[in-house]
């Protein structure tokens, strides 16, 4: 494990976490609570992503924040008084929970004044990258990708093939209209495809494949130049996928790793709730009771709806 960390660390120093969006699908909660701080069981989504970033050997977390979402960065502070109080009360487990985010990785805030799109948010990260960093990772805090080793695989693909590497999931063809869909060609490795194009939320009959984009990107530094050259797309926002398409058009290598694991979309209640059920069931403390409670709820629901 230590060897893997060291190995992939050579590829990824900075992980960018865009966290400046409005989170409108979570209103009214997001009037005051940033979406990225909503908990999966007891841990905010952004802390899970910071853990993933640390586990692939990254050293810097560039968090893109909005002026009214200061709490996101606060989550990574040390909270000495809280630690002291908990310590004095002998609450060791809680102490380690409070300390964890602060000890994982070095966070740096980059402010996005207005939510001008994911592409705009990622473009702002250029200022924190070291001169020697010719690539960086982007992890969307909305997206839980398990197992969390996919970024290390993506780093290996970049080391072999250069350019940018994205993460793809297979979905049933009839669901492709919800996603960014890759147009791909095979490579020698069945788990790696060369991307020749991307279509955002196509009609099912127009989907070029059943491989869809998820929130993990390993991007060549050239993306910044591409981001400066694109025009606002859907919703008047600067789209990251438009900049990636530009790189593809200009002949830059872009590949996807076809990930066989699991994915949870925390960006809307419909994905967030199943994520909590899944993590909750696997939680040592809450799992067994939750399992019984869910069975009970299911039985009641099925009786009410004539499903049993
Ligand atoms: P989303 O589109 O899922 O997030 O962007 P959102 O805009 O907050 O959500 P809704 O649609 O209003 O419900 C994916 C990620 O990109 C960030 C978001 O914070 C989220 O983590 N983002 C999006 C930015 O940082 N800046 C932006 O301008 C847009």
UniProtKB/TrEMBL annotation:
<keyword id="KW-0548">Nucleotidyltransferase</keyword>
<dbReference type="InterPro" id="IPR005771">
    <property type="entry name" value="GalU_uridylyltTrfase_bac/arc"/>
</dbReference>
<comment type="similarity">
    <text>Belongs to the UDPGP type 2 family.</text>
</comment>
<dbReference type="Pfam" id="PF00483">
    <property type="entry name" value="NTP_transferase"/>
</dbReference>
<dbReference type="InterPro" id="IPR029044">
    <property type="entry name" value="Nucleotide-diphossugar_trans"/>
</dbReference>
<dbReference type="GO" id="GO:0006011">
    <property type="term" value="P:UDP-alpha-D-glucose metabolic process"/>
</dbReference>
<protein>
    <recommendedName>
        <fullName>UTP--glucose-1-phosphate uridylyltransferase</fullName>
        <ecNumber>2.7.7.9</ecNumber>
    </recommendedName>
</protein>
<keyword id="KW-0808">Transferase</keyword>
<dbReference type="InterPro" id="IPR005835">
    <property type="entry name" value="NTP_transferase_dom"/>
</dbReference>
<feature type="domain" description="Nucleotidyl transferase">
    <location>
        <begin position="16"/>
        <end position="277"/>
    </location>
</feature>
<dbReference type="GO" id="GO:0003983">
    <property type="term" value="F:UTP:glucose-1-phosphate uridylyltransferase activity"/>
</dbReference>
């Amino acid at each position: 494990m230590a060897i893997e960390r060291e190995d992939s660390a050579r590829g990824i120093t900075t992980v960018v976490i865009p966290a400046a969006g409005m989170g409108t699908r979570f209103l009214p909660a997001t009037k005051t609570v940033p979406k990225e701080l909503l908990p999966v069981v007891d841990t905010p989504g952004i802390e899970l992503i910071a853990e993933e970033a640390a586990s692939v050997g990254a050293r810097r977390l560039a968090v893109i924040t909005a002026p009214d979402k200061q709490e996101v960065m606060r989550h990574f502070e040390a909270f000495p008084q809280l630690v002291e109080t908990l310590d004095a009360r002998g609450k060791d487990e809680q102490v380690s929970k409070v300390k964890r985010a602060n000890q994982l990785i070095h966070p740096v805030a980059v402010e996005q004044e207005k939510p001008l799109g994911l592409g705009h948010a990622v473009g702002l990260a250029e200022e924190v990258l070291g001169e020697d960093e010719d690539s960086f990772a982007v992890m969307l805090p909305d997206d839980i990708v398990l197992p969390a080793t996919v970024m290390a695989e993506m780093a290996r693909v970049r080391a072999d093939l250069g350019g940018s590497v994205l993460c793809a999931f297979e979905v049933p063809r009839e669901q492709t209209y919800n996603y960014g869909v890759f147009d791909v060609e095979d490579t020698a490795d069945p788990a790696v495809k060369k991307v020749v194009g991307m279509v955002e939320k196509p009609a099912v009959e127009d989907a070029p494949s059943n491989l869809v984009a998820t929130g993990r990107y390993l991007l060549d530094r050239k993306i910044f130049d591409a981001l400066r050259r694109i025009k606002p797309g859907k919703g008047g926002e600067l789209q990251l996928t438009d900049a990636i398409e530009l790189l593809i058009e200009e002949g830059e290598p872009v590949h996807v790793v076809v990930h066989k694991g699991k994915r949870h979309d925390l960006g809307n209640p419909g994905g967030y709730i199943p994520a909590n059920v899944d993590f909750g069931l696997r939680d040592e403390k809450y799992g067994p009771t939750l399992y019984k409670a869910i069975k009970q709820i299911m039985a009641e629901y099925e009786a009410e709806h004539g499903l049993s």
